[in-house]
Amino acid sequence: MQSPPREYLPDRFRDSGRKRRRKMHQALGDGQGAASRLEAVTDELHLYTLHAEHLSLPERSTAPEGIYEHKTVAAWREAVSGAFSGPYWWRIESGEERLHVHVIADRTAGPADLVRGGARCKPVYDLPGLLRYLAKPVVLPTDETLAVYRKAKARARRLGKQLPRTSGYVGIPSSKSWQNGSVG
Questions:
Q1: pLDDT tens-digit profile of 142-178?
Q2: Torsions phi, psi of 97, nearest 5?
Q3: Burial category of 68 from C-beta neighbours within 10 Å (exposed 0-12, middle 13-18, buried 19 and up)
Q4: Which of 8, 66, 89, 90 is least surrounded by Cβ atoms within 10 Å, i.e. has the fewest?
């Protein structure tokens, strides 16, 4: 008797030290990568970890399955854009059974009411280590999250779309204009 075919974990749910290091090295790019350019154009990098209430987003924006909805991701992206000035990197994650966002930006770039050095806004002392940590999957693989992902992926495929991007850089110099650590 043949065993049923094994279901493989989709790439976005796979996690390994090697994968995290590769993503970290890609972001740093030997001083030319996007994270390196962000660090060079800011005075003091901080990691902001924010929930919907910190960005005045409605409670419905916190549902974990929203990470696969263009409208929800766009609302988070716009809220981050309104709360931050200057260059930054953002990433939406599903954790603690609700969505939240991580932002790496200058100490003064984020919401003024957040305590610097507090739980929501911490100085970045080890950028490579932080990048390795943030290279983890945006959703933890459980039977439930895999089912939600597969349903969202099938829906997107039927509509001829991709799932929304859950991270990005804003306001950093382009790699083409960046030469040896300065804008050329």
A1: 888 889 999 999 999 999 999 999 999 999 988 887 7
A2: 60, 25
A3: buried
A4: 8
